[in-house]
Design a protein that fits this description.
heterodimer; A: 454 residues; alpha/beta; D-Maltodextrin-Binding Protein, domain 2; eight-stranded mixed sheet; two-stranded antiparallel sheet; globular; B: 296 residues; mainly alpha; MetI-like fold; two-stranded antiparallel ribbon; 14 helices; 2 strands; 1% strand
């Protein structure tokens, strides 16, 4: 064979390889009938749970995408969840991601490429807030399942019960049982009692300003649009709500506000944040950490005296691993209300193994795993304590880690709802324009611009 | 006998280029086209289908932050290129002379070439962060009263950290380009100048530098283009705001609202356009310079 034909053959091979690749990348998938019937039968309550479990065993695998930034969580999953799923005849395959957005992107991309139910690659995602909002807005969710799996008995789904709010609404987006509550969180602050005594620590935003004037540079908060930063800003806005109603108005969607109304609602809070800025870490060139781990290192390095983030048992968990000093304590700040929410397991519309995903969410919400998660890694219960029997509730109480300096009652009393997801998007943009970019426009115009562009 | 053989060799080398060309076409030109198309409003996967529209370009061109970001992008790209060029010229000329430990120096200076940028970023953080080694050292010897008092070099708009990483990685690269050029050019002309009584400064400015000019222009061009479009270094070591255009594009791309992605694509297209224009201007100026001194 001459060299020329050899090269031609190589070329042919290359071209066919390219064509093959495109075929793999863009397959024309259509939803299978059988799997669609399964979905509609389950959602309408026609299927018995044993039939779901049987189908799940046939599927054999479930692909769970979760934030993988915690070694404690990852090892708990390997030690506890994987064997439990194996008992059900299902292999749990986890994909650890740095940001939940990656999984949401994957689902949406696959749907755009025509990969429907049974042909995607994500069975379940651990998420809440704007990621759920995105999936919901793009109609990329499997359907109402959470109130139909057997372990839903541990969760309050009764529309008429006000205590069901945390399960029915995720940052103001109605969940419609399209995601299963898995864990809860509350926004807390932590301090080192060696550097700052509890008595001298600020208890609300007004005291924080006075404290900052005396101790310039000893505090900062995570930069929005990171959700930890957004939550701090929301807490401040609640506190300075001119109606005095705190979080109440912030439950409404953005469409229910005029630009003027919204300006009136948030202006005092934003002016406060602007006012304290020169007293934050860095002074004239304020320094806002990018995420909670940078904030924690500022705290550990003695650059700030206290810091805030989500984590009811954060202090306990971090003292245990040696991340925080033994003298670190939880601080109930601010007394005007500390945001509390839940996080969930959602099943996307194009889950490749929907039955196995349903069994997975059921296993994850079993009381055994809920308590094991609380005890082993300090992730609060997703289940609602009043739905448990006396003995079950006692077992859950016994598993609770220490709170270090505050009581569960105190935190419960101060708990308030998270902000509607459609407002969070506007609030973070106002923060970026008004505080970070130091926009020269009048405040009302900044708000109007962001509301219109939304 | 020679003629057909050479022709065959030509065909073969052309065919040999195909894999690289295909990769370039798909991953580079393809991505660029996709980016331009999205920036003009064609992104049905995010529910946007307004092609063609210039609203996404208008959106960021009217943003107050644009000039700030553009200025910083140029600043982080040009300053390390100039400082790096000066350092590399010095080093390459020094390496061309005989001195004690030259073999060792020639080995050591190349090490950063093999190390990825992100490792450089980690080194800078370990050394210069306020909880880093230097902060702790100065605290230990009592120069500052707490590690937190160490001046803040990282994650602010001054960009010291960014430029340190660029220099650490790029000085070895430029030095290697210049030094190998010096080796090829030989030392005859320098030696003649020396014999004719030129001082070492005169030799450098009138003999060495003009001869190194093409290599210097080539290497600074590569460095500038890289720095201009670089993302991860300013993303980690720069301020949240203001920062480079690439980081600004990332912020928009990463927004929970997918409808902002076309605007991110518009910024990326703009970055490509401005950096191509800068490179073109640089080359035109250089050609004019060469024509003036009569080499072209």
């Amino acid at each position: 064979m001459s060299k020329g034909t050899q090269s031609m053959n190589l070329l042919k091979k290359l071209i066919s390889a390219c064509l093959l690749n495109t075929a793999v990348l863009f397959p024309a998938y259509a939803a299978d009938k059988d799997i669609d019937i399964f979905r509609s039968d389950f959602v309408s309550g026609k299927l018995s749970w044993s039939e779901v479990e049987k189908r799940a065993r046939e599927e054999g695998t479930v692909n769970w995408f979760h934030w993988g930034g915690s070694e404690q969580l990852n090892s708990w999953i390997e030690r506890v969840v994987v064997p439990k799923m194996a008992d059900k005849g299902i292999t749990l395959k986890t994909t650890r991601i740095a940001g939940t957005r990656d999984a949401v992107d994957l689902v949406l991309t696959e749907l755009a490429a025509g990969r429907e139910l049974g042909h995607g690659s994500v069975d379940a995602i651990w998420l809440n807030g704007d990621n759920f909002y995105t999936l919901s807005k793009q109609e990329a969710l499997f359907g109402s399942f959470a109130d139909k799996v057997p372990n839903s008995k541990y969760f309050e789904f009764d529309q008429d019960n006000p205590r069901a709010q945390l399960n029915l609404s995720d940052f103001g987006t109605p969940t419609q049982a399209r995601e299963m509550p898995w864990s809860g969180e509350q926004y807390i602050c932590y301090l080192d009692s060696k550097r700052l005594s509890r008595a001298n620590a600020p208890k609300d935003f007004v005291e924080l300003e006075i404290w900052l004037e005396k101790n310039p540079g000893r505090f900062t908060y995570v930069k929005p649009p990171h959700y930890i930063g957004n939550t701090f800003v929301q807490t401040a806005l609640y506190s300075f709500n001119p109606s005095g109603q705190g979080y109440k108005e912030f439950q409404r969607p953005i469409t229910s506000f005029t630009a003027d109304e919204f300006t009136k609602l948030v202006q005092p809070g934003f002016e406060y944040l602007k006012r304290i800025e020169p007293h934050l870490l860095g002074g004239d060139t304020p320094f806002y950490p990018q995420n909670q781990s940078v904030n924690q290192s500022l705290y550990n390095n003695g650059e700030v005296d206290f810091a805030c983030e989500f984590g009811l048992y954060l202090v306990h968990n971090n003292i245990k691993t040696g991340t925080f000093s033994e003298t670190t304590e939880t601080l109930a700040f601010p007394s005007s209300g500390m945001i509390k929410n839940k996080n969930f397991l959602a099943i996307p519309k194009n889950a490749p193994h929907p039955a196995a995903a349903l069994v997975f969410t059921n296993v994850m919400s079993s009381l055994e795993l809920q308590i094991s998660k609380l005890k082993d890694i300090g992730y609060p219960l997703g289940a609602d304590i009043w739905k448990l029997s006396g003995a079950e509730a006692l077992a859950a109480k016994a598993a609770e880690p220490a709170l270090h300096g505050v009581t569960a009652d105190e935190l419960g009393r101060l708990a308030v709802s998270d902000t509607n997801a459609s407002l969070v998007k506007v609030i973070e943009k106002i923060w970026v324009d008004y505080i970070e970019k130091k926009s020269s426009l009048p405040f009302g115009e900044i708000v109007a611009k962001q509301i219109v562009s939304n | 006998m020679r003629q057909p053989h050479a022709k065959n060799g030509n065909l073969k080398s052309l065919l040999g280029l195909i894999p690289a060309t295909v990769v370039m076409l798909v991953f580079f030109v393809g991505a660029l086209l996709l980016c331009i198309v999205q920036s003009l409003g064609y992104a049905p996967q995010y529910g946007i289908n307004q092609f063609p529209t210039f609203q996404y370009y208008q959106a960021f061109l009217h943003d107050d932050g644009l000039w700030n970001s553009l200025g910083l992008t140029f600043y982080y790209a040009v300053v390390p290129t100039l400082i790096g060029a000066a350092l590399s010229l010095f080093l390459s000329v020094a390496f061309a002379k005989a001195f004690k430990g030259r073999g060792f120096a020639l080995f050591v200076y190349k090490i950063p070439l093999a190390v990825p940028y992100l490792v450089g970023v980690s080194i800078v953080i370990l050394l210069f962060a306020n909880g880093g080694l230097f902060a702790r050292f100065f605290y230990a010897i009592g120069v500052i009263s707490s590690p937190g008092d160490f001046p803040r070099f990282l994650q602010n708009a001054e960009g010291w950290g960014i430029m340190m990483v660029y220099l650490w990685k790029q000085v070895p690269f430029m030095t290697m380009m210049l030094y190998s050029n010096l080796l090829v050019l030989g030392r005859e002309e320098e030696e003649s100048a020396l014999l004719l009584g030129a001082s070492s400064l005169q030799i450098f400015f009138y003999v060495t530098l003009p001869r190194l000019m093409p290599a210097l222009v080539g290497s600074t061009l590569i460095i500038f283009a890289f720095n201009f479009g670089s993302f991860e270094v300013p993303f980690i070591l720069g301020a949240g705001y203001p920062n480079t255009l690439t980081v600004e594009a990332w912020r928009l791309f990463d927004d929970a609202d997918y409808a902002r992605r076309p605007e991110a694509m518009a910024i990326v297209t703009f970055v490509t356009f401005v950096s191509s224009l800068s490179i073109l201007a640089y080359l035109v100026l250089y050609r004019r310079f060469e024509r003036k001194r009569g080499r072209v």
